[in-house]
Amino acid sequence: MFNIESPYVVLVVIPLLIMAARIIDVSFSTLRIVYLMKGEKVFAAGLGFFESLIWLIAISQIIQNVTNVPAYIGWAAGFALGNYLGLMIEERLAVGKLIVRVITAVETQALIDKLKDLGYGVTHIDAQGTAGKVKIIFCVIQREQFERVVDIIKSFNPKAFYTVEDVRTAREGVFPKSQGFYQRMGLIPIFVRQPKKK
Question: 6, 19, 117, 123: least buried by Cβ within 10 Å?
Fold first, then answer.
């Protein structure tokens, strides 16, 4: 029979359960903050509900085992791993939009044409930099497409100066087709395409 007061349960099982609970609730907390910043109020509220529920379960175990040092270690380890895991999940989800601003003195027409051909909305203006005339290119993109856009920029000008900022809201605009949720999470290979309807 399973004895909840056995040393193995008290020193190993309970700390591991506390750590697992903390990993989940801190991951939810990290994602909740990200979604709040993106203006996704309903989804953030749902995450907050489960985050607080799991936190209450974990803290109740700490209160019941106040002399259990491994439980404290499990709590702290879960907090640290939860932060790390939450950020990893958020990176894979690639939520929201970014504005990429490229400033370069190199001829930019080929870069502008390439971005347009791939379906990106591009705005460009002439400007004056410290060393002379430059071109500024603005491009609002889905966050999941950031690495692809940077690779395109570097392929045309490896030394191009660019900045990236989060965009809380963007209406209308021109964007290439996004990957689905399962593709971003790595559950379906990107090279798998849905058959075209005849």
Answer: 117
